[in-house]
Amino acid sequence: MTPQLDPFLEMLAAERGAAGNTLEAYRRDLESFAGFLRPRRGSLESAGTEDLRAFLSQLARAGMAPRTAARRLSALRQFYRFLVSEGLRGDDPSAGIDSPRQGRALPKILSEEEVDRLLTTARAQKDPEGLRLAALVELLYATGLRVSELVSLRLAAAQRDQRLLIVRGKGNKERMVPLSEAAKESLAEYLAVRAAYLPRAGKAKKGGEAAKAARQESPWLFPSRGASGHLTRHRVGQLLKDLARRAQLDAAKVSPHVMRHAFASHLLDHGADLRSLQKMLGHADISTTQIYTHVLGERLKSLVQTHHPLAKGPFLTKGRAR
Description:
Radius of gyration: 24 Å
Organism: Pelagibius litoralis
CATH topology of the largest domain: hpI Integrase, Chain A
Number of strands: 4
Number of domains: 2
Domain Core-binding (CB): 1-84
Subunit structure: Forms a cyclic heterotetrameric complex composed of two molecules of XerC and two molecules of XerD.
Family: Belongs to the 'phage' integrase family. XerD subfamily.
Largest sheet: 2 strands, antiparallel
Order of helices and strands: HHHHHHHHEEHHHHHHHEE
Distance between the termini: 74 Å
Low-confidence stretches: 201-206, 298-305, 313-322
Strand order of the largest sheet: 1-2
InterPro entries: CB, DNA_brk_join_enz, Integrase-like_cat_sf, Integrase_catalytic, Integrase_recombinase_N, Integrase_SAM-like_N, Recomb_XerD, Tyrosine_recombinase_XerC/XerD
């Protein structure tokens, strides 16, 4: 039905190093537009500017957030630029369309006290499940990794140098992320029980050659018996929600991405500079990192409004208003 969709996605993977999750998002966005075009007897390859405008109008009427609609339009722009570059179209129907106007939403964050409650609750469980959970939370908060980067960490990345993690992020780019002492301790405790999560680890006798082989048969730091061979992003999200409830926090506030935001905003609160933060987060553009300066600004504004005497009305000193 859409003959150029797969070649377009193959180009993104081969030439731009797009990750699997990114490719799936592009596929969903383009297939959504293709579905919109079918009753109009159109196709992705032949759609015109008015088709695109009608699609965006439908998304707006359905209540789609401007940010999500802008992402879909971005996918369409790249698809039509691909068709033009391949000589499959002479025009780009998306060229004259403006992106939906959107405000810049501040990231959700947790306070340092809330993160401490999560970590304390995770550390209290000393069985393999608890040790793995503690390692996941410690690593998320100590490194600011994306959850996709966390679950796809290879065992070798954590064994080369315990002071650093070698992370392969967006665009297949590697970066080094320092580990805190607490994260190193949690990681070492988890590694001692990691074999419990290997597919055939339970059949191997402790200390024998079979146990050694079982420990070596998965390349992933967080192996799983699922199809991917490692923990999924969805499962990590579930584990964090459950941990939040046990820590008596609002589970709706807690997610792997919120832990990444907490890492960044807390570092900035304690004097980290934006360039260092950009490198640790793996942002290609520092403008992406600068969103955290707005978080800090909002927090300082709230602090002044709450605690400054002038914020509550006239400030009286010796009976005179100042």
